[in-house]
Amino acid sequence: MREYWISLNSINGLGPVRIQRLIEFCGSPKSALETPPKLLAEKKLITSSCVNEWKTGELLDNARKQLDFCKDNKITVLVRTDENYPLYLKEIFAPPPVLYVKGDIKALSNHALGIVGTRNPTPYGVSCTRALTAKLCEKVVITSGLARGIDTAAHECCLDRGGKTIAVLGCGIDRIYPSENKNLAERICQNGALVSEFPPGTPPDTYNFPRRNRIISGMSCGVLVVEAGAKSGALITANYALQQNRTVFALPGPINSPMSAGTFRLIKDGAVPVSKPDDIFEHISSVSPVSLFASLPQSADTLQFGLDEEEKEIWETLSDEPVRIDIIAQQCGKQIPQLLGIMLNLELKGAVTQISGQQFRRTLL
Questions:
Q1: CA-to-CA distance for 56 and 34, rounded, in angstroms?
Q2: What percent of the chain is modeled with pLDDT above 70?
């Protein structure tokens, strides 16, 4: 059945929410893919643009080639109904229909803590990351994003101490980014796992990283932000953690350090300040996955509902014509890194469709 999951997942404009609706309506991914697309469009389960891509034979051929590639390269393909699919991740809103894993798949079933931070850490940030990770990895798997800086320090320290670590990628699992972490990625495969929701060959485009951050927090019972500037991508991960009902932890830092501006704000907003591993253990020792979204919107007619005020404001600036992300940012008065996270939420809710080149438009029904 994996080829049917992969085929559905490869159709532009058919995100996790719509795939879930399709499967609920049709009974299985196979039945969904074999249902005439015009009928699905009439039921408003897919958009008109999806109808043109609904070439079942071609989709299945490409999916089988992808599966052959994964088998040859020791990549495990997980779908949402698999028992090995990460339990925490399965319980978030719109979990990825397909995951690609390389390494020890058993690492995905263990208690995990996300550790993230700036790509340009201070010596204080690196030192604290290593000191905390050295003790944390004795009891939990460390999840991070393989980025330079804090992510790298967390992964390396965990491996040096004999712990297990998971790196979530913002590209295909066969394309390591940044390239200087290729050796680190190989070490992680030996005592942990690489994970991606993107098919092999996917380049590390900017828009992929908010999606990667969502997976880091979704796979974890809590997220520790070590150092983060005022506009750091680590804050996007913290925001997703809050949406997913995860505990956010933050390392206090020097009040005059720009790299502590983001963590200071998190603590001010209610994050748990951390000075030692026990500050974290006392919050996560009894955590278990909690389903936050028992039901999804039932039809595309209601897709604009369920948007918060910020999402609604941005959605209303869009039209049926594709608009570049930088133009949207100018119109909304937002920074692109912040806007990318919001656009991802809109896409997951079925409200917008991404076109190539980081262009977006309202979903065409």
A1: 7
A2: 93
**Residue 303 and residue 363 in contact, taking contact as beta carbons nearer than 8 Å:** yes
Strand segments (E) across the chain: 76-79, 98-103, 112-116, 141-144, 165-168, 192-196, 222-225, 247-250, 272-273, 323-324, 352-355, 359-362
Verify cis geometry, omega within 30 degrees of 0, for the bond prior to 322. no
pLDDT in tens, 343-359: 877 877 778 877 766 78
Q: To which residue do tokens 């990283």 refer?
A: 209
Closest CA to 67 of 51, 208, 59: 59
φ, ψ of residue 89 in degrees (nearest 5): -65, -35
| Cβ atoms within 10 Å of 64's Cβ, excluding its own | 14
Only one residue has tokens 């997976």, namely 215
The string of pLDDT tens digits covering residues 269-291 is 999 999 999 999 988 765 544 43
* Topology adopted by domain 300-362: Arc Repressor Mutant, subunit A (1.10.10)
Q: Retrieve residue 274's tokens.
A: 């951390």
Backbone angles phi, psi at 364, to 5 degrees: -90, 120
d(CA 301, CA 21): 13
Just give the CATH number of 105-284. 3.40.50.450
Residue 157 exposed, middle or buried by CB count within 10 Å (0-12, 13-18, 19+): buried
pLDDT at 335: 78
